[in-house]
Amino acid sequence: MGIKGLQGFVTRVCPDVCRTVDLKELAEKHHIDHPNVLPVIVVDAMSCVRRWYTPESWVCGGQWREYLTILENFIEAFKAAGIELVFYFDGVVEEKKRDEWIKRRQQNNKEIANLFQFIKTHRKQPGREMFVLPSALPTFTRFALKSLGQKTVCTLQEADFEVAAYGLQHNCMGILGQDSDYLIYNTSPYFSIEKLCLDKLVTVMYSREDLCHALGLSMMHLPLFACLVGNDVVPENLLEGFWHKCLVTCPSRNKSYNRRTSILFAVANYISKIPCSYSSLKHLEEMLPLGSEKTLLHRGMESYLLPGQQSPWIPPDAGNIKTFSCQEETAMCRDTEIFQLAKEHHIQSENYAVFNILSNGELECSNSLEDDSDTEIPGQALIYRPARQHIYSVLLESEKDGACPLVKEWFVYFGNPLQQPELIQPVRPFIPGGTPNLKTLWFAKGPDVEKQRYSTFLACFHLQDAMKELQALEAPVAAFCCLLTYLMLQVSSLSLEDLNAFVALVLCLRGKTGAELASLQLVQVDSRAVHLGAVLVRGLTTLLMANSACGFPFSMDDLMPWKVFDGKLFQEKYQKSHRSCSLEELLEGNESLYAPFQNLKSLICKVCAVKKRTIQSRPRGNGCNTGTHQRELNPRFQQTHRSSFVSPYHNQMRGNPWRNPQPQGKK
To answer: Which residue stretches belong to region Disordered (predicted)?
Structure first.
């Protein structure tokens, strides 16, 4: 997240810090200096996804095949220059940054509300100035890069630290990203993703040496400078008094400077005049109003100290807080073999969310493109909660002698103030004979175990009775069918028209290239279809979590959105279906799709009928959804400590939606 205003400061006030560089030339020079080593750039992927997502359409749920091609072209451009890329993704939200994470999520909520208001008013996507990342884009970007053969790392702590450490330890050619913290770490050169011209491989390199020169400091001063101007560890509100003293003793050197620029220069001036010693740091800690956080400055300084580095401000025996050694001792999972495998899969981007649950029992989910004023569709966080409760049980129940610990969730949805995590009770899925333990699901071999993995996966979505029919389908279609059936059971407002649109989407998507999908033009954009697209894509991440927990009954590649979803194509199918178009038009005149369409639809309706869910026809015609009435919180959504979950969304149904509602059954 970096140091507020520092990136703009170097651009406006210290232009010498910003050097235009040719990455091809730097790669050639790196190769001459290190003849036996391929030039490597380590990429802070989370600061790049916004730049990577360039398809014209972004509100409809994601143009995933287009996006995959864009990532492929990005990789090829560097490969042609002989540069290898290593991609790092945030694997955790550290507790010290939780407040900032919440603040950003709340700001995103406002942006998304404005976005939906625009779509309802104008029936089209707004300009790029209102751009919001498609739901789950970072998650699927990680798997996309891995599928393209790239080294992809999911971190155990804040990504910027691991990126800087990797750059230093592997003598990398540079770091590609957009985070001013990379100006502070003493590591590889820092290249800008925002200034990158991919065709020429030219970008801006931010020079730490020139920043030091402009501030009158040395490299060893930069971590203290970052802490005293305010960063992710030391909040700005504790520093106002200190800044005032600095400004009094060092008035602004230029009347045109804004206050932030004057503060940066004044703090640098103060630092330049004190000895580089631990006693100086202690004196500063005593001077600042840190309250009970007396070692805050010390911790902030340590956060920039990479493995093998020392600082004159910190005693050498103080130890670096950036270690992961205590994780295993405090983990919810006590089985070393399971914990280690989950950790390895996490780092190598081979699983999803499982390690976060096993290590500290905590999970977060960022904003989705959901219309908070649409009272008929619950937040995706609530729709998929019953499935997550079963997944938590699969992961944690065998660890605590049958007494499952609660899982802390930070999920963004309407009505959740995010003041504290919601405590979610794991719920045992109904499986005759009981849930297999993780040792069996993850390590055992043989056809019987494969069947157990598949049936446990389906049980998380209450679909184990449809196992035979689902196994007969191609894996991506089976997974999609599982998700769609679950959605139909959970959300009673979903209609036959919605079902037809989703089934037509997955069948017509086959064989279409990214270029074909890019050329698809929409007459208008429907806000309800935007919402449903986001819900569907978030559902795919729930499939990833269940698949990871159950020992991979599916290949992760079969659960990717580019296999089963395209935002614009779904909009087209949704609008045609709700205009009651013919089956021929819905399936693009492809007669070979008629039978598969009827078979998939019949399977889903049959499963729903058995569970007392009748899917009604409810065409919405040409009109876009314009619901503006305020949603009222259903009090049942707040009952997060329940031991079992009865879906609150079946207000149009009679009877229990699940045929085998026995989550508390004995093993």
So the answer is: 645-667
